[in-house]
Amino acid sequence: MAGQITTHGTLTFLQSFFGKRPDLIPNQLWIALIAEEEPSVMSTGTDIDEIDSVTYPSYQRAQFQNIPSNWVVSGYESIYNAQAIEFSAANEPWGVVTYFGICTTMTGGALLAYGELATSQDIIEGDSIQIDIGGISFTIFNPAYEGD
Question: What are phi and psi of 82, to 5 degrees?
Answer without folding.
Answer: -95, -5
